[in-house]
Amino acid sequence: MRVVVDHVSKTYTVRGQDAVTALSEVDVTVDSQELVALVGPSGCGKSTLLNILAGLLAPSTGAVFFEGTLGAGRPATAMVFQEFALFPWRTVQGNVEFGLEELSVGADERSRRARHYVEMMGLAGFETRYPHQLSGGMRQRVGIARALAVDPAVLLMDEPFSALDAQTRQLMQEELLTIWERSRQTIVYVTHNIHEAVYMADRVVVLSRRPGRVLADVPIGLPRPRREAMVGAPAFVEAAGRIWGLIKAQAQEALRE
User: Sheet of 186-190: strands edge to edge?
Assistant: First the structure.
């Protein structure tokens, strides 16, 4: 599934307050089977753009197009959130089945598909546990399994590993890349972490400070599959340096104003 963001702007209006423009004339294309990361300074509208892609927000102007054929019962998108967003009263199995319930998948098929993704995410044996009985990394694995279980054409990820410690974050990045190498699902990945973006993505789209607009579309010249040792490669260092230079300049401008 190909995603086209065409001149999208978003302005928030609250009665009695000044309007705030979060995004301005954003054009982004994500090709089928591509993993594209969105980065930018805080408040640049990354999450707003992701929510527009998910259909949770409507753009003020412009449009989003999904180009490709969706099979019966297959959603265009599914979201993995930053704060896990699990139902505390549901077990691991129950949380993973939730999206399938919303799609009216039968009980037997729902159970089978959920178990498959529970096992894929290394959670076999924890099906009957509740979120409070899991570590942060395990809770996020449940969130990813829930999103994958509905087989979305495009997977949207909003800083999914930011709440994890550094070691768990690195392991989760590697696990997600392993899954992506196997499925080649289109992924749009929001992160504040430049090194994470360069390590994982085919391209990194850099947004300006608010109102967010596209400053650069940076191709990542690293081979697949990615390896941890690549963080010292010239292509990695060059891309990370270019992206940081853009974001740093935006932050400095904001301070001067």
Answer: 77-80, 154-158, 186-190, 35-39, 203-207, 214-219
